[in-house]
Amino acid sequence: MPVLFSNNASTTLSAGINNSQTTIAIASASGFPSLGSGEYYYGTIANTNNTKVEVVKVTAGTTSLTVTRAQDGTSAQAFDSGDNFQLRVTAATLDATSKSDVAITAGSVQADTLIAKGDGSSADGQIQLNCSQNSHGIKLKSPPHSAAADYTLTFPDDDGNANEYLQTNGSGVLSWNAVDLTALSASNLTSGTVPAARITASSIANDLIDSQHYADGSIDTAHIGDDQVTADKLANSINSEIAANTAKVTNATHTGEVTGATALTIADNVVDEANLKVSNTPTNGYFLSAQSGNTGGLTWAEVDTTIANDAIDSQHIAAGAVDLEHLSSESVDEDNLYISNAGSNGQFLQKQSGNNGGLTWATVSQEDFIPDGSVMVFFQANAPTGWTKVTTQNDKTLRVVSGTGGGTGGDWAMSAGETTSSHGGHVHSSAAHTHNGAAHSHNHNLSAGSHTLSTSEMPSHNHNTNIYGSGGSSSTGRLQYGQRSNSTITTSSTGGGSSHSHSLSGSISSGGDGATGSTTPGDTGSAGSHTHTIAAPQYIDVIICSKDA
User: 191: which residues sit within 8 A by CB, 6+ positions away?
Assistant: First the structure.
C-alpha cells in the first residue's frame, strides 16, 4: 500500500463536518494525488486561524474523500465549510517514506545509489515497473542470498539494432551483438532446435548423416524414393519366398463346381449352408448375422421383431400413409408444420401458395379485421388512426331500427335545447286512470271575514236573573221581595244552533313540485289549438368515422 505525494496541494472544505464523519467533501481535487487500489496520502484539516488541526488518512475519492480520522497523534474535531484542507509534510508521511509502501507520483529521486532491500528473511530485493493503470508490471530482481552475487551490469550507450542481443564482456559491461551462426560448434549447440532456414544442402557436409542420426522407425514409405529398394536391400527370407511364388506360374486344373487352372471360378448356386463356415447350428427361420470374433465371422440368429424406439423414420413410411386415424390427439404442433418462415408471438398462419409448405407466419394488422369504408360511432374527440371523420351528419340523436340502417330524418337539432311544438284543435282521449302525484305541500295567506251570529245561529241557552231584597242599592228596575218567593227568575230558552258562514279572502300557491290529477276516466282537454313545451333530453357527443382504404 504505497503512500503518495504531491507539491503545494491545497483547497478548502465545501461542507462542514463533525468529529465522526469519514466522508469529507472538498472544493477542488486539483494538485492532489490520484489514488489507485491500495494507495493513500495524509491530508491536514485546519481552521482559518490554525487553532484546530487534524491529520486524516485519505484512502479513496477525488472531491468526496474517504478518510480515516485522528491520525498522527491528532484528535477528531468538527470543522466548518471553508476551513483549509492541505497536503502538508507530517510525521506520518515521513515515517511512511522509510517503509516499503512508498510511491512517488511525479518528479525524480536524486541519489547516486538507490537500493531495493530484501526483507531480511527470504524475499530478495526487487524493483517493479508497473503499467499506467498499476494493474500489472515487470520486476528486476536480485539473485538469492545463497548465490553470494556481487557484481555490476553496465548497459550499452544505445538501444542496439533489430535481432541483436545483450552480451557481457565478462566484467559486467554489456553490449549489443548479432548471433554468428558460423561460429556454432558441437559444444555451442547442446539442445534446442535449429531453424529449417539455417539447414540447407550446402550447410550439411556429404556423408555427415548416418544411421545413428535417424530415430528408430523414422524412415517410412514417404521418405523412400520410387524404385529405390532393390533385391539386395530385402531380407534373404523375403527373397526366398518371392522366388518360390514366382515359380508357380499355373494351378492344378479343377473341374466340377470349381473350375480353372489359373484363376479359379465357382459355379452358380453351388455354395450352400454346408459350405459356409458358421459358428453355430441353425434353426429354421434364423438369419445369417455377421459376428466378428466368432468362427467364420458368421452366426445364425433369430430375427428380433421388436422395433426399437426411433427406428422408423420417413424413409420407411409410404407417401400418404400417415392419415388422421394414425395421428394421436394434439400430436401436431408448430415444429411439425412445414412453414416458410420463423414465427413471432401474436402472428397468425396464412396460406401463401409458392412458399415452402404453402404456409407463412404473418402479422395481423387493423385493416384485416374491418372492411374499408365501414362507418362506426366513436365516443372520442377525433377520428382514430386509419379513419376519417364523417361531417355530413351533425347535431342528431341515434335511432335504432329493425329495418335497413343508414337513413336520416327529423327536423329538431339537439343543440337547440328546449323547444315548443304547436298543434291544431284536438281532443285527448284516454282510458280511465289515476294521476298519482309526488309528495308536495301548498302555501296560503287566507283570512276569514267577521260575522255576527243571529239568534237562530246561536246555540240553545237561557238566562238567570237575581232578585235583591228591599232597600238594596241595586233595586232599581229589579223585582222586590214579596213579588216572588224565589230569589232568582229563569227566562225561557232561546237560540237555534243553526250553521253559519264566514267570508274568505287571500290566495293559495303551490309549495312544491308534483303532479295533480283526477280519478275520473274519459276525455280531457279542449278542442282548441295549443302549444306543448318539449325539454331536450340528456346526450353525449360522439363522432361518426369511415375506415380508410
Answer: none
Looking at 42-174, list the stretches that DSSP marks H as alpha helix, in order from N- to C-terminal side. Answer: 91-97
Collapsed DSSP state (helix, strand, coil) of residue 416: helix
H helix intervals, 45-113: 91-97
Contacts (Cβ under 8 Å, ≥6 apart) of 213:
none
- Give me 98's grid cell: 522509510
**Lowest mean pLDDT: which of 17-26, 343-352, 374-383, 395-404?**
395-404
- Of 192-201, 369-378, 406-415, 448-457, where does the model show the most confidence? 369-378
In whole angstroms, what is the distance from residue 421 CA to residue 410 CA? 13
d(CA 311, CA 327): 18
Q: Where does 348-440 show beta strands of DSSP type E?
A: 348-351, 359-362, 375-378, 387-389, 419-423
Would the pLDDT of 362 be above 50? yes
Euclidean distance between CA atoms 497 and 458, whole angstroms? 5
pLDDT of residue 477: 47
Q: Angle at the Cα of 52 (from 48 to 53), degrees rounded to 5?
A: 100
Any idea where the domains of the chain sit in the sequence? 10-97, 271-303, 343-397+539-549
Return the percentage of the chain with pLDDT > 70, whole number: 78
165-185 residues labelled b (16+ CB within 10 A) or e (exposed) = eeeeeeeeeeeeeeeeeeeee
Q: Tell me the HSE value of 80 on the side-chain side, using a 13 A CA sphere.
A: 7
Distances (CA, A) of 537 to 96, 375, 416: 94, 25, 11
Cell matching residue 22 = 469519514
User: Can you say how many angstroms the Cα of residue 4 is from the centroid of all Cα atoms in its chain?
Assistant: 45
8 A C-beta contact, residue 361 and residue 347: yes
106 C-beta neighbours (distance < 10 Å), count: 9
Name which of 465, 472, 471 is nearest 487 in CA terms. 465
- Written as nine digits, the cell of 229 is 529398394
> CB–CB of 280/300 below 8 Å?
yes
CA dihedral 242, 243, 247, 248 (to 10 degrees): -30
Output phi, psi for 198, to 5 deg.
-90, -5
Is residue 192 over pLDDT 80?
no
| Per-residue pLDDT band at 548 (split at 50, 70, 90) | confident
- Average pLDDT on 375-401 reads 87
The percentage of residues in the chain with a pLDDT greater than 90, rounded to a whole number, is: 21
pLDDT tens digits, 424-469? 666 666 666 665 666 566 677 777 878 788 877 788 777 766 655 5
> Dihedral angle at the C-alpha atoms of 19, 25, 28, 32, nearest 10 degrees?
60
Q: Give the residue, 436 or 127, on which the prediction is more confident.
A: 127
Handedness of CA 125, 130, 134, 137 (dihedral sign): negative
